[in-house]
Amino acid sequence: MEVLIKYGTEEQQEQWLKPLLAGEMRSCFGMTEPNVASSDANNIESSIARDGDEYVINGHKWWTSGAMHPDTKMCIFMGKTDRSAPKHKQQSMIIIPMNAPGIKIVRPLTVFGFDDAPEGHCEVLFENVRVPASNILLGEGRGFEIAQGRLGPGRIHHCMRLIGQAERALHLMIQRVLQRETFGKKIAEYDTVQADIARCRIDIEQTRLLVLKAAHMMDTVGNKSAASEIAMIKVVAPNMAQRVLDIAIQAFGGAGVCQDWPLAHMWVSAKSLRIADGPDAVHLRSVARLEIRKSML
User: Residue 115: which pLDDT band, with cuts at 50, 70 and 90?
Assistant: First the structure.
């Protein structure tokens, strides 16, 4: 929705944004590809070729979240419109109706064995899919610009949810160790467990403050000026949540890794977000390069 709010034409907003806002339909996003290292978006090989009043789209995508959901009616697709242009001007984004001929759902993808169907992730083929030329977003060669505008808010949403998951995990862990006994005393009475609880609270609050700072900067000075903070929280939040969840799972014992409690699924989510929307290494590289650039001024 944010892409259409920021970059959609009035016609695109009328056709797609309003039904999305009304909850009448869902959307998906086709960016990552199985045949290239998509953490560098320059590697994306999908094509968006102009043919008269239409664009012809060909590409192989995966981790297209929600593509199989019956309410998903449109996909925002990233591909190359001009391979001869400067590398950050080759990519474009276009709206594809999910009922367009040539779209094939190859398979649903599991995450550490979890199947999130029908809301989960899919591998999708786009073969000679034709859409009106008016479906292009912002114009040819603006894909990177749109991606950065989309991924900043998307990343902060992930980080806020991760803080919520960590809070829930800590709460569940404390309730668990207050109820269970080993070797004649409550698990909560052990010094090591108390230290774990304290470290979890410290980690959560440190992360919360950095996410609040990033959000404040996005609101006051914009995403571009907040680029370093956005990259920082995308590293800090999933790593923090993974640590807290790992501690909670240990406290739960066997129950922590089964379907009776949400901890295992939340751990998978935290681990996955160290890859999704840019892996840790890419964000660390971004922070380092921005710091070096500041030192050279």
Answer: confident
β-pair partners for 185? 182
Residue 41 pLDDT: 84
* Average pLDDT of the residues of the chain: 95
The structure tokens 């004649």 sit at 184
Tokens of 196: 């774990």
- End-to-end Cα distance, the chain: 37
Q: What is the pTM of this model?
A: 0.89
Q: How far is CA 27 from the centre of its chain?
A: 14
Alpha-carbon span 234 to 155, nearest angstrom: 6
Three-state DSSP class for residue 289: helix
Radius of gyration of the chain (CA): 22
**DSSP strand pairing (26-30 vs 72-80):** parallel
How many other C-beta atoms are found inside a 10 Å radius of the C-beta of residue 178?
11
Q: For the residues 131-151, what does the mean pLDDT come to?
A: 91
The pLDDT value recorded for residue 39 is 84
Q: Residue 85 and residue 81: Cα distance in Å, rounded? A: 9
- Residues 6+ positions from 126 with CB-CB distance below 8 Å: 30, 46, 57, 58, 59, 60, 61, 77, 96, 102, 103
User: Pairing state of beta strands 72-80 and 91-97?
Assistant: antiparallel
